[in-house]
Amino acid sequence: MTTQVPHVAPAERVRRICARKNVRAGLMFIVIAILGLWIARNYTVGTALRMGTGYMPRLLLWCLFLLGAVIALQGLRETDAPVRPNGPAWERLRPIVFVTASMVTFALCVERLGLVVSIFLLMFVGSLATRELRLIETLLTSVVLIVLSLAVFILGLDLTIPVWPDW
């Protein structure tokens, strides 16, 4: 007894492949990398010992290109994307709104409120992007991010970012 595979039109097959999140994300990374490489095409590269202005951007863009290719290939190996339930528009926009709002909040507050308070605000507003996070997870992540930021930016790089509010 043989089982027959139903015939799928090529356009439908391409649509199913493009519906996979990893394929779309990988292609997005590849397009951004190609655009960046095109913009940086006239930058001087130099050598590893005498780096020009285009050395690091090109290196990072090639890494982004390779990362996008790996992600896209993983997406091609997956089975078809599961059907997503169509929830209200607000639930689909929730992550975009709150993640963007958290970054804007951080940018507006870091000079006035200092690094510590701004990171707490960043994490709290960003955690509203999903209903799945618990308060304790958000607080622990905030503390880890604050410690790492203080170690890298204040102690390591000696930047003059205010740590606490200056009231």
Write a structural description.
By secondary structure, this protein is mostly helical. It folds into two domains: 68 residues; 68 residues, no CATH class. Helix content is 67%, strand content 0%. The protein contains five helices and no strands. Helix 2 packs antiparallel against helix 3 and helix 4 packs across helix 5.
Any chance you could write out the topology, listing elements then pairs?
Elements: H1 10-18, H2 21-39, H3 55-77, H4 89-127, H5 135-156
Helix pairs in contact: 2-3, 4-5
Key attributes of the depicted protein:
2 domains, 167 residues, mainly alpha
Characterize this entry briefly:
This protein has five helices and no strands.
* Number of structurally distinct domains: 2
What is the average of the pLDDT values? 84
- Main sheet record: none
Content-based structural category? mainly alpha
Spell the H/E element sequence.
HHHHH
Ranges with pLDDT <50 over ≥5 residues?
none
Number of helices: 5
Number of DSSP strand runs? 0
Radius of gyration: 22 Å
Percent helix: 55-70%
Q: How much of the polypeptide forms β-strand, as a percent range? A: under 5%
Distance between the termini: 81 Å
